[in-house]
User: What shape does this take?
Amino acid sequence: MFRKALWLLLFFSFHSLADPTATQDVSQEVATQAPMVNGLVAEHAMIKNDMEAAGQRINQLETSWKNTTSEMNRDLIQQQAVTDIRNTSRRIDKFLEQARVANTPEAIALAEDLVKDEIRFFEARLTSASTDLSNLFAQYEKSSADEQLLVLFNINDFYAYINWLISERAANIKLLEGWQIDTTAEQQQLNREITNYADFMTAYLRNNTRMRELLENEITSLPADARTAMETRVATQNRLVQSAVNNLREVVVLMAAQGLPVDHYNELIFKTTGNLAEAVVDFGTLKTVVIGFYEDFVDWIKSNIGGLISRLLLFTVLMGAAVLIARLVRRVIARAVTHKRAKLSTLVQEFFVKIGGNIVVVFGLLFALAQVGLDLTPVLTGLGVAGIVIGFALQDTLSNFASGMMILIYRPFDVGDFVEAGGVAGKVGKMSLVNTTIRTFDNQVFLVPNAKIWGETIKNLTSERLRRVDMVFGVSYGDDVVKVEEILHDIVTGHPKVLSTPEHMIRVQLLNESSVDFIVRPWVKTEDYWDVYWDITREVKVRFDREGITIPFPQRELHIHGQVKSDLPVDRATVRQLDCREQTVAC
Assistant: This one.
């Protein structure tokens, strides 16, 4: 009893000693805040009533949305519902700002209560929107191709609507955290919902991607005239996949803001689109993508290792057999083309040997690829298109190739022949289907395109075993013709390389202006042509000089008629020759 009395005395003593001014300020502040708090209480009650009324209106709008089939009416209903939700949310935001300014326990308590009501309001809207989205998916499957595009627009609108509701819920939770209010339960609930939503979108995206791949594979097995309808389905499926990818990317952004793991979802986006820029890229995503590729590769190897080894062995055996057959074919062709009766040129022989073996190898490669399961249709189609493109790009080369084929077939010359072709004279050193190498007599090497050779005159100097040496020698009119013929005959028959058969020819060919011309035409082996030509030419000069036979040079005799004037200088005269045929002036 005594202790209680003592404590009461001390309490009243300290209270009486307190600052009267401070007590007065507190009283004034309480008096000022009282009307604001009262106003917040009234506003809080009105907002809660309006929120409940808005929820009922939105439920009615959602019922009307389900019952209507007009896309325009659905858009109007959806816009009205979103407008009601936004108006309610803006009013709540204004109330929260006022509560922050008041900053009293009563105001904060009212704000906390209102935020939690708004969270529950958004949860109800999310539940309803999720149900409507599932109904839209079912409606999309039942719609025609023209109606599906409109349904897809509604699906995209619902994606945006749901994402906005989730972001609003996340913003309210962060607001409560700023007021030091425990939001663990609400945060966990939101994280579960976002994760479930992302998992749903992941499954939906995978199913649509798999369906698209099945449709694309089916197109390849259809004839060209039956692909139109299937291509339309593929285009529609592509729109679904792209829509799901875009929405999953938005959900990943929301998850990243909540600190949730997103690498798995980014990997799916990357694998679906093939574009890393489509994903929300960070180091973790890159790591997950690399690991995912490695794991997929390992799984693929494990599941296909048996088939890979068997196919590899089969391919190796078939290619080995093709190479062996190609060698055998080359030997058979080589024996055939080098036979004496074949009489084929060296170029023809090399061509047939190479082309025969290469054809066997190419067909063996195609056969081996077909046996291991490779579809050769696109390969052959690509080779055909590439052949057309290369043909246009290599017109000149193909022209040379065609000319080489003509040279190969008609054989106007062969390696080792002396020819005049393409403006070049010399010995053929090497021949191919594109060009011919000619070495001139002064040891220059020319690489002449076959098109130029085939397009011009070809002169083969060594194609025949025997050649006639054509030579012309002139003597003066005063020499004995019979003696000259005897000398020439002696020179020709005395040369060891001149053939007796065919018989040589020595005749007077022409009575020229300054000489009597003899033709000398001995026959020789082709390889002895120039030796005989040079030897006989030298011997003719030596024997003519020894026998006194004159080899004349061009000359003219002048006959002067008339009298020369005496007053002209002795060393200078002008001679006029009057003749019925010509007039000549000499100085």
User: Anything to note?
Assistant: The longest strand covers residues 424-431. Residues 1-33, 570-587 have pLDDT under 50 and may be disordered. The two ends are 178 Å apart (CA to CA). Residues 55 and 423 are 99 Å apart (CA to CA).
